[in-house]
Specification:
This protein is an alpha+beta fold. It folds into three domains: 99 residues, Elongation Factor Tu (Ef-tu), domain 3 (Beta Barrel); 70 residues, RNA polymerase II/Efflux pump adaptor protein, barrel-sandwich hybrid domain (OB fold (Dihydrolipoamide Acetyltransferase, E2P), Beta Barrel); 112 residues, Four Helix Bundle (Hemerythrin (Met), subunit A) (Up-down Bundle), CATH 1.20.120. The chain is built from eight helices and 14 strands. A six-stranded antiparallel beta barrel has the order 1-10-13-12-11-14. The chain has a four-stranded antiparallel β-sheet with strand order 2-9-7-4, with no helix packed on it. A four-stranded antiparallel β-sheet has the order 6-5-3-8, with no helix packed on it. Helix 3 packs antiparallel against helix 6 and helix 4 packs antiparallel against helix 5. The protein is rod-shaped, with a radius of gyration of 45 Å. 18% of the residues are buried.
């Protein structure tokens, strides 16, 4: 009789210490990535389907972009025009224009030389009394006129070889920078019409089909990266003190051949259930705290959001 009691007591103690008695109830949950475009438009291309796996950088969908393409071409033409105007101001006149001014300078030099010779001849004639002094005054005026014309053309030649004024160049540089910024903005708006994946994961749902109108900021599809899969379970208050962030846990699910290892990443600072009066020893046992644990991305592929889990603390 005594041996039978000992066997029953040993079986009861073994049952209390088994993992089935200490396992905590939880479920798998996913943090979905909702992919949308910042602008509205008609969906013209859907590159993925529900259940497919995508890598980061893969194309997802595209909206009609005729207006944005035309705006980008216009901005590109304005940028080219502003840059051409800036380069034109930084250079002097064309070589043929400079050569024309040089030819005028040569003509003025010849005219000045001729008027100087005529002045000298008139001075000799006046000294001999062959002509009046009026002719001498006319010769002096011609020399002054031709010298002034020569100085004017030399100044024009020097100016033609220079670039535009610094203030004009700075204004043109500002216009070119503004046109470049407008081109970058138009290019960005055009790129926003085509969505690419920023993460690797599974397409869990597509919310539109080709030809439908998509509002600005409205998700077109949802992705679930493996690293966004986590387990959520509740820990009774008496066992909370033995739990800490980083602690290893094991997850078991129906159909899982082997336990899935995970690590605690978050412990709720507030209880999920609060008795209406004060905390007695019995009521404290009713308090539970939400805990989250994340498996490795490779193991997370074995879990589905909403799947029930048995969690064992290690």
């Amino acid at each position: 009789m005594m041996n039978a009691r000992i066997l029953v007591l040993a079986a009861a103690l073994a049952a209390c210490g088994s993992p089935q008695e200490t396992a905590l109830q939880g479920y798998a949950e996913g943090e979905f990535v909702r992919v949308a475009a910042p602008f509205a438009g008609t969906l013209v291309r859907l590159d993925v389907q529900r259940g497919s796996r995508v890598q980061a950088g893969a194309p997802l969908f595209a909206l009609e972009a005729e207006n944005e393409s035309a705006a980008r071409r216009e901005a590109e033409d304005h940028a080219r025009q502003a840059q051409a105007q800036l380069e034109n101001l930084r250079k002097g006149r064309r070589p043929t224009e400079i050569e024309a001014i040089r030819a005028q300078v040569a003509q003025a030099q010849a005219a000045a030389s001729l008027s100087a010779t005529e002045l000298k001849r008139q001075q000799d004639l006046v000294a001999k009394g062959f002509v009046s002094r009026q002719r001498l005054d006319e010769a002096r005026t011609a020399v002054e006129r031709d010298s002034a014309r020569l100085d004017e053309l030399k100044a024009q030649l020097a100016t033609a070889q220079l670039a535009s004024r610094p203030d004009e160049i700075r204004a043109a540089e500002a216009q070119a920078a503004a046109a470049t910024a407008a081109l970058e903005q138009a290019d960005w708006r055009l790129k926003q019409r085509t969505a690419v994946s920023t993460v690797s994961g599974v397409v869990t749902d597509t919310l539109f089909v080709r030809g439908e109108w998509v509002g600005a900021g409205q998700p077109v599809l949802t992705l679930l990266p493996p690293e966004n899969v986590k387990a959520r379970f509740y820990v009774p208050e008496p066992r909370l003190g033995a739990l800490k962030v980083g602690q290893a846990v094991e997850l078991r699910c129906d159909g899982c051949a082997e336990p899935i290892r995970a690590a605690v990443t978050w412990i709720s600072p507030q209880a999920e259930f609060t008795p209406p009066v004060i905390y007695s020893k019995d009521s404290r046992a009713k308090l539970v705290y939400l805990v989250e644990a994340r498996p490795s991305p490779a193991d997370a592929l074995r879990l589905k959001p909403g799947q029930p889990l048995d969690v064992t603390l290690r």
